[in-house]
Design brief:
311 residues, two-stranded parallel sheet, 7 helices, 76% helix
């Protein structure tokens, strides 16, 4: 090999080495650019997630995965994602249903507790006054009964004017009782009962006058006594008080409500029933939705994901 040939061969080798180096450098540059592009894509996906754009971030991730897959595997990958999405939707729906049910239960419980507390407060506030009123009514009844017994077996001198005044007092008391009012604390009632119970034959000109006065007094006291005796004992409860002035015998643990409280209780019962119906309807609707999701998932498992429709 002569010198010129050797120089040509050396030059060729230098050219080939330079070409390889250039190709290697170009490939390295391409790899570096691709790596930068991947890093940029990852950062953009992280930014979307940080901004709460979960669906867009998921779409970018899945697009990257499909890019790296063989085209024949893409439908299978889409089917897998479809099943995963359906499962996640069912899970979210079940969690929301549980939250809604808990909210309804808590609301119903709070309403019931508030109603019970209000009834307890109202009952406690009136209990002592009611007990005192019953004791006073019993005292009035005992007084009237004692007067009746005195009229039947005793007689003392008493002024006719005082008897007339006593009869007037008793007549007013009877009017109050018939109107549904209370005789507790009625002014002059005890004195009138004591006065009318003392009837002296010597104050009458004839036996006929005495008997007439006696009959009137007994009739007045008997009529008044009806409004102080106990009208009934209701261990099993009383749906409605039949008339004003009704006297009932109460038992430990029972509760007495005013007319407005009774109406409020009835209204609360109606509202609670309506709330239960709403809860039941919500549960049925949720069960129907979950059943539809389950059937859709079963159909996708058997038939595969439906084709993507063009908009």
């Amino acid at each position: 090999m002569n010198k010129a040939t050797q120089e040509a061969a050396d030059a060729q080798k230098v050219l080939e080495d330079a070409t390889k180096d250039a190709a290697t450098a170009a490939l390295s540059a391409s790899d570096a650019m691709a790596q930068i592009a991947r890093q940029r894509n990852d950062l953009e996906i992280q930014l979307l997630e940080a901004q709460g754009k979960t669906e867009e971030a998921t779409a970018r991730k899945r697009a990257d995965i499909l890019t790296g897959l063989d085209a024949s595997l893409a439908p299978l990958q889409n089917q897998i994602w479809g099943v995963q999405d359906a499962n996640e939707a069912a899970k979210i729906a079940a969690e929301e249903a549980d939250k809604a049910q808990k909210l309804l239960d808590d609301s119903a419980k709070a309403a019931q507790q508030a109603q019970q507390q209000a009834q307890q407060d109202a009952t406690k506030a009136a209990q002592q006054a009611a007990e005192q009123q019953i004791k006073s009514m019993e005292a009035v009844h005992d007084s009237i009964s004692s007067a009746l017994k005195s009229m039947m077996g005793e007689s003392e001198v008493f002024a006719m004017a005082q008897r007339a005044q006593a009869k007037e007092t008793l007549a007013r008391a009877l009017q109050v009782a018939k109107a549904g009012g209370t005789l507790v604390g009625f002014a002059g009632l005890d004195e009138a009962v004591a006065s009318i119970g003392k009837l002296d034959k010597n104050n009458f000109a004839s036996a006929l006058g005495y008997n007439a006065e006696f009959g009137q007094s007994v009739g007045l006291l008997s009529e008044l006594e009806k409004y102080t005796r106990v009208n009934g004992s209701h261990e099993a409860g009383l749906e409605r008080v039949p008339f004003n002035g009704y006297v009932a015998q109460l038992h430990a643990g029972e509760r007495v409500q005013t007319a407005s409280q009774a109406a409020a209780s009835d209204s609360n019962v109606v509202e609670m029933r309506a709330m239960r119906e709403e809860i039941k309807a919500g549960q049925i609707a949720m069960a129907v939705s979950l059943d539809k999701i389950a059937k859709l998932q079963q159909r996708w498992d058997g038939n595969g994901m439906p084709e993507v429709r063009a908009q």
